[in-house]
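Possible regression after last week's pipeline update?

I re-ran a chain I had predicted before the update to compare outputs. Posting the input and the new output here so someone can diff against the archived version. Not blocking, just want to make sure nothing changed silently.
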Amino acid sequence: IDLSILPKPVIWHAPYNILLGMFGVDWVTPYVDRFLGATPEVVEAYSRLINLWLVDRVAPRTNESNGVAIERSNLSTQIRETGSWEFNVDPKQIDMAMAPLPWGTVPITRGGINSWGITSTCKDIEAAWEFVKYFTLGDGLLPWMEYMSKSPFLHRQYITYSIENIRTRMPNTDLSLMYEIGNYYWDTGIILSPAWDSILPIFEGAVKKASAGEDPVSVAMSEVENAINKLLQESPLFK
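New output (post-update):
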């Protein structure tokens, strides 16, 4: 494999506003046709979340920066949902710590996938397809998952190895939690909007104001409510 042509690794994380689901609410309606950020239920839920650092001080504020910087931000000042794999970016663990999420009103978890694809400009489709198969279904899958500190999808061909590997590396791990957690999968519907690319900077601006304590949640969300609703209605998810 010519590693020089591979893209540079990207650090992905779920920002704290995605954790809203632990309070049984979402930023948009189920049909993704109306923004709910300014409703009393969502305002209360998001206020409870950001009060962890604004009021309770159990986490650093977003503007308290020191240590390892990643993505124009800082690991020590980021409240994020993540996995143990992220310790790879800070091997000395100088600037990171992990703790369970605070209790909300409903149990939720989030997940993600690592997808492989072939570009439209690929000059050797057959070779590229063999490459993809090797790392997704072939002998390369398990070494790749181990290198990335991720779990392979649940398949009878890999599940036994995965369980044995986890038990060896982390003998105190509760495997039932790991393999049953998919029953509580949740994600915000706002990212499904066809207009998400246009909504993101508007929404993110309100989130940053509220989470930094610059504006109350109700004010920050009310300021962007009409703009986001306009984009949702102009590009409906369901027609």
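Follow-up from reviewer: compared with the archived run. Residues 125-184 form one domain. Marking as no regression found.
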